Amino acid sequence: MRLEHHQFRDMDLIGGDPALDLVNTVTARDTLPRDWLDDYPALLRWARKAALIPAAELQALERLAAAPAAKSAAALARCKQLREALCAALYALAGGSEPGAAELEILDQARLSASRAARLVSRGGRLRTQWSAQRSGLDLIAHVATAHAIELLKDARLERLRVCDGRDCGWVFVDSSKSGRRRWCDMATCGNAAKARRFNQRHKE
Q1: For the chain, what is the radius of gyration of the CA atoms?
Q2: H-helix or E-strand spanning residue 148
Q3: Which SS3 state, helix, strand or coil, does residue 97 take?
Q4: How far apart are alpha carbons 187 and 183 in whole angstroms?
Q5: Using CA atoms, how far apart are residues 82 and 31, in angstroms rounded to an integer?
Q6: Using one digit for the tens of pLDDT, what is the confidence trace for 34-47?
Q7: Rounded to an integer, what distance in angstroms lies between the CA atom of residue 84 and that of residue 26?
C-alpha cells in the first residue's frame, strides 16, 4: 500500500460514521490502494476535519507527538491495525459473510485498550464515556474511533452498509437514501465517473 500525503476535505467524510471515515483514509482499495495517513500529523489532520475529538485534546496530542517520533509512529501503526481489521470486518459483513476470527480479535483488543483508558463522567444527569489525551496518550484517536466502531458493529445501520461500486475507490458507507439503492460513495465523484465510462463505452460500440 502506497503512502500519499493528503489534505483532508469535507468530501472525504461520506461514510456516515467516524469509524467508516477512518476506513476510508485508504482510497482505491479495489485497484492500487493509497494510504492517506502517511504520518501521525496526517492522523491529527483527519481527526480535526472529522471533529472526532475536542480541539483542546487535539492540541494536547500535538504536544505529545512532538517527541519522540518512535512513539507517535507506534501509535499510528496501532490505529492502522484497527483500521484494517475494521475494514476487513465491514467488507465481510457487506458481502453477507461473517468477519474473520483474526479481525475480531484485533477489534476486541482495541476495545479492551479503549475501555481501560475511558472514564465515566456525568453530563446533564446522564453518564457518558469520555477519553482524554491524559489517559489515552497518543492512542486517543484510536480509542475514540474504536468506540464508534464497536457501536456501529452492533447497530441496525449495518443493514445499509455498502461498498462503493466505483472504480479506484472501495470506500464504505451507510446508505441513507430512501430507496436503499445507493451504489456510490458520492454521486459527484464515483457516480459521475461510472456514468462517463458507460457513455464512452456505448459511444465506442
Answers
A1: 18
A2: helix 140-153
A3: coil
A4: 9
A5: 21
A6: 999 999 999 999 99
A7: 9
